[in-house]
């Protein structure tokens, strides 16, 4: 029991360090600069509580799903599928924000102390080198640790972080600690009105933020695998994270109260004044002497960022590798797996975004807009799909993305124009939309189920069986069948569908006259062979270097048919990746009614030793026209 408690504490430390990214690091300074202690508490408390809430709720998910120590991992595999792109975008923005913040608010001010650091070429080169070094070290740490060892690595870095914090605190003057100026930012356009404009979006975004963070899902899964309480781990993580935020924000207020005139603030392109780097400016003078405060404080910042970057690398490697392995997308299969499953291309994207943001004179808040508006709806829907019954319908991707972009634009206008109403709308509208989406979807589901029950009951009445039969095969559900009389001995193509018809006879039926269920796969198999023959007429079994084998076969039976009915099978290429090809099929009766549908997965092996092959080029060239 003591070991589990210690393990939870170690994981809590890793959780806190991974969440101490650019947002927690430098916005804690800015919000203290703007609004003093009330601003710091408004930012820190919901942030820490959001972590704890994520841990509590994921523990509930893990306990109520089957699978033992793998229950959370099995749940995430299904849960994450419709959110894959948003998970990825969220990680890119988070990493870009983190690197951008450290470069702009730490490295550039420190490099500015170097003689000759004033030309545009020198600044540009220094920024690019700083970004490269940060990302390279993040990759190195990520490769070194991995999710199983990351808590040990973060325990070591956490010890160094604690040493840095103690060094800074012991070096401060006790007589002046805590004399920060509440409301100093009001002189620079940050009024009480602006406070409430930021408070609502921050609270909303911070409470739901962890739900789209791959780093936290991977940690929660690993914690559960180790038979450790996810709830307790995230409770420790929330407490440690809260203390880190309070330390940094309080340090900023100490600087404001004790070093008037020793730091400079800058006006952004929105005419607001920003002071993210006031502590860096103040402590940077310590390099001229032997003070331990500057290296201790700068070490604190670097450690916090590195523990985010290595966590991001590990989680991206896990997420991309898993999705590339299971994907059957043709485009993904063209790119080498080692490239597309590696986080390094993503880190290059992060580098580009960071440099564009720096030279465009962005501020940290411009990245934060995404977390207060764009991602809110997705995170809320993710929570709903975990806990709200009957909310597992397909994700309306286009509608969700359109709503997210709309809310992002509304919030951005509100921030630039200092219009709180627009900021409230940008943050709260996604929540309202998700509530409407979940409730109306549930209502439609109930109506559909009841309507189906009524139709099924009514179909027992012979008087309306014909109506039911005609209504239940809408053109949008299935492709149009081939009418009787168009039978082709070798089959033919209708667009991308290969079509073959046959007539059921006595040998196909069972004792009551219906076509035996085992015949339908035989019909599909016959049609598939004719499709191969039509698509690859030059294929020779005697000289071929590969064989095509069936990896899996699925079929859903919808209706029955009888002797002497015309049966039409349609088959086409549905998907293909590097190794596997998926064929989709539909079976129709004499009057065009859908009898069944399904799919099958094909694999390709060497004709010499039956070793697994990539899809042969001749198969690609033959099948691609029908995809």
Annotate the secondary structure layout:
Blueprint: H1 2-19, H2 22-64, H3 71-79, H4 84-111, H5 120-171, H6 192-208, H7 214-225, H8 230-258, E1 266-267, E2 273-274, H9 278-284, H10 293-326, H11 330-334, H12 337-340, H13 344-359, H14 364-387, H15 397-417, H16 420-458, H17 465-471, E3 492-494, E4 497-503, H18 519-535, E5 546-557, E6 566-576, E7 581-588, E8 594-606, E9 612-613, H19 617-623
Antiparallel strand pairs: 1-2, 3-4, 4-6, 5-8, 6-7, 7-8, 8-9
Helix pairs in contact: 1-5, 1-7, 1-8, 1-10, 2-6, 2-8, 2-14, 3-7, 4-5, 4-10, 4-13, 4-14, 5-10, 5-13, 6-14, 6-16, 14-15, 14-16, 15-16
Write a brief caption for the model.
The chain has 627 residues and is α+β, with helices and mostly antiparallel strands. The protein is built from 19 helices and nine strands.
Give a quick set of tags describing it.
alpha+beta, Sodium/glucose cotransporter, Thiol Ester Dehydrase, Chain A, seven-stranded antiparallel sheet, elongated
Walk me through this protein's architecture.
The chain has 627 residues and is an alpha+beta fold. The protein folds into 2 domains: 2-441, Sodium/glucose cotransporter (Up-down Bundle), CATH 1.20.1730; 492-626, Thiol Ester Dehydrase, Chain A. The protein has helices spanning 2-19, 22-64, 71-79, 84-111, 120-171, 192-208, 214-225, 230-258, 278-284, 293-326, 330-334, 337-340, 344-359, 364-387, 397-417, 420-458, 465-471, 519-535, 617-623; strands at 266-267, 273-274, 492-494, 497-503, 546-557, 566-576, 581-588, 594-606, 612-613. The strands form 2 sheets. Strands 3, 4, 5, 6, 7, 8 and 9 form a 7-stranded antiparallel beta sheet that branches. Strand 8 (594-606) and strand 9 form a beta hairpin. Helix 2 (22-64) runs antiparallel to helix 8. It is elongated and about 100 Å long. Residues 175-189 and 443-485 have low confidence and may be disordered.
